[in-house]
Structure formats: C-alpha cells, structure tokens
Amino acid sequence: MASQNQNQQDETAIDKMNSQLTAAGDRIANNKKYLYWGVGIILVVAVFTISYLFIYRNPRLNKAFEAYNKVEMSAMGNDSIAAAQYKAVADQYKGNDAGKLAALSAGESYYNLGKYEEAAEYLKRFSCGDPVLEANALVLTGDCYVNLKKYDEAISYFKKAVKKADRNPQIVPRVLLKEANVYDEQKKYADALDCYTQIKKDYPEFIPGNGIEIDAYIARENARLGK
Prior knowledge:
Blueprint: H1 4-30, H2 35-74, H3 79-92, H4 97-112, H5 116-123, H6 131-147, H7 151-165, H8 172-185, H9 189-202, H10 214-224
Helix pairs in contact: 1-2, 2-3, 2-4, 3-4, 4-5, 5-6, 6-7, 7-8, 8-9, 9-10
C-alpha cells in the first residue's frame, strides 16, 4: 500500500518526465538538431524515476515493514517496550507506510501507559487513506486531550473524526457521545444537547454502552437548560 505522500512524489516525477517530453517535442519541430538532447533528458528523468522506485523506495519500504514486524513479535503485550520500539521505527522511517503504522502503534502504546502527550504526537503522524482507521486514530487523539484536560483540542479532534468517518454508524454516534461528554464537562449544555439530538435523529438504533437511552440524555440537557 503506497502512502499518499509517496504517490504525490511519484506523480511529480512522472509529471516532470511528461513536461520534458512536451518541451522536447516542440524543440524538435523547430530544429531537428535538438533531437538527441531532448531524448537524453527524457532518458535521464526516466532512469531517475525507475531508480528511485526500485532501488531506494521499495527496499527502504521493505526494511521498514521488517522492522515493524520485529516489534510486533518481540514487544507483544508489553506497552513500555512496544512504545519505545515502535517510536524508533516511526522515527527512522518517518513518512512511509510502515513508519506511519509504527507511529499509530506507538501512539496506542503510549496511550495505554498514560503518556498522553507522547501518544498524541505519534497518533498525529498516522494516515493511510482508509477513513475508518484514520477516524479511529483521530478519536484516540481526542481521548488523549480529554485526559490532558485540553478540552478544546479534544473537541477539535472529535469533529475531525466525525467528518473523516463520513456517517459511519459504528463510529459517528460514539464520537458524538464523547463530544457531548466534553461539552458537559465544560458546562456547554446546549452544545451537548445538539450532539445527543443528532444521534437520535441520524442514528436512532445506536444505544450507549451504559444502557441509558439517548432520550434520557436529551431530557437531562433540557433540564439543565431550563426547558
């Protein structure tokens, strides 16, 4: 699986080669003596692109996944070891797919250790193009800020998660419930009411884990608002 950043780099190289092709074609039409120069430029760009993909990027990506898999095997069940080792892989291979996956795992391990600042730092590095995985990473980042009592930051990441999840019925109502809880902590009862109302309207089958139905939450917020 190629990362979005990597795809953009590959596309840039290809676009550059196409640009050279077009420019060379124009020069050939005007003056035939530039033919070999134009072809030479095209070949140089092509060789550079192929070399980057097959000599540098792919072997590096393979090494990164090998390093990640070693941590998976050696640090299983030990968050202290896992956090340190995943961090090392994430830092060494920052930007490629394995490095991003290691950053996610480091963030999860730091979260389990109660090191929420470190967890948030590494969770923010994760991306993969999958809206479910990315939404869950954003949710966990929001949870980090809840534990740090940085409620505005938490709300920001919960909102990003809702947007990323794109109406996923397994994710969005759960995140809205978290968001409402933060608003309650801030005594922003009208905002909390909006979250509960949205759950009732758009996700009527959702039942909070504590067994209390959404109507009860709505009634509570209305009471707090004197309605």
